[in-house]
Amino acid sequence: MSRPAQPTTAASPPGAPVLALEGVGKDYAAPVLDGVSLTLGAGEVLALTGENGAGKSTLSKIVCGLVRPTRGAMRLAGQPFAPGSRREAEARGVRMVMQELGLVGTLSVAENLLLDRLPHRAGWIRRPELHDLAARQLAKIGMQHLDPATPVARLGIGQQQMVEIARNLHDDTRVLLLDEPTAMLTPRETLHLFEQIERLKALGVAIVYVSHRLEELQRIADRVAVLRDGRLVDVRPMAGVREAELVQRMVGREVHEHEGRPRRTAGPAALSARGLGRAQAVRDVDLDLHAGEVMGLAGLVGSGRTELVRLLFGADRADRGEIVLHDAGGTARTVRRGWRSPMQAIRAGIGLVTEDRKSQGLLLPQSIRVNTTLSDLGAVSRTGWLQRAKERGIAQRLSDLLRIRSNSVEQPVATLSGGNQQKVVFARWLHRECKVLLLDEPTRGVDVGARADLYAELDRMTDAGKALLMVSSDLRELMAMCDRIGVMSGGRLVAVFERGTWTEQSLLAAAFSDAAGAGQPAAHAALRSSSAHAVAP
Hints:
This protein is an alpha/beta fold. Helices cover 30% and strands 25% of the residues. The model is unreliable at 1-13, 515-526 and 530-537 (pLDDT under 50).
């Protein structure tokens, strides 16, 4: 493999050097990071970007003490810096908000925020003081409405992400690393985060911002550093950098994300829901999914999108309504109150790419091979015995098709990047024949190159006559990929738009149409459109 071009280094950073990396590298079975040298200035935001598996998270974990480098050195404010743990790095003022949440679900928001410095007297926690301190911390990130006594497990993913960010906003911070901090945030929450970044910059805090959302990087970053295959290939001022140019440096090839696609010709109905509901979470939804089309599902956080998908997959049991499965011959199978279990739905030809791949979609310690073939072990077995060679061949073929970056199909999925883990989940449903595939936030935390690969696979599936239902908080993704977009609000399917008839404004207006009646606070629940200011106040 040819060595990438040497990085183009910008002029000196805007502030005095705070963090310097000199030839930092990390090897596992093979090098994953090789000779990275960077300088970070006080009050600077450095955007760190690259494909999944390029080494961004590894580099971030080295800086914050979670991973020991194989070679190279670091200096913090001119002094040698080699943290042996996260606690040691934090003691020196280096903090990291990780993409994977580290909250304790059984503890309250306040306890999570101040876990290492709980106010107490004679061994007893002083609750009023704890909640007062937590409220001040939450106010920094625009979450003063959240009750500090709320158990974290009751919060949505977006709210948990905000708590994780608030936990790391300390006044003694010198370097703050943010790894995909807005992946599950609403535009309003993102705006609060950006305000805090500006405040920290003014205080001289150096910030490393890891993200695949290139439009965000262009808004807040002073410089951008691009990693590819573990090597630093570019460092330059962010001003004037075009998105297409940045993508080319990240991926090493042109990437097309299907903007302006024509509407597909849909086939007959593959799956229908009639009056499907579960308490107030999903209220009497009528829905038709057609063969050969992608239907999108938009809505506010808590509008019932994920809850509807779980009913269609049997992960939750409906208390009213029915699901109708249509076959190619025109006959229909009706299941009152939905499937009894996901296994029943899978046998009927329905698959699910869950929004939380780590806790609900993958067996992390197991290999790519095991995770890929798990959906249909009968296809790789004979008389009850696994045929390892056949299983390995299938996993390798699907890995090549989806361009999963790994050492081999025997590599544990826990060691893969987020985007490659997501591809393994997709591979599972390519291995098992399914007529209907449900996709809940399928590209969360996935880079632009991997996202294009997944979109291409969705195209192949619809060309083969599959029916796809895609839930996404990114309106641009839905508008680019879908033939129809349904909008959920307050547990109801309030509108369905055909391609060519929707606008961002019409989708947002429908999403807010029943939010007040469902008790959904508009300030905390919104879709991500092309502008963070495109949501209702």
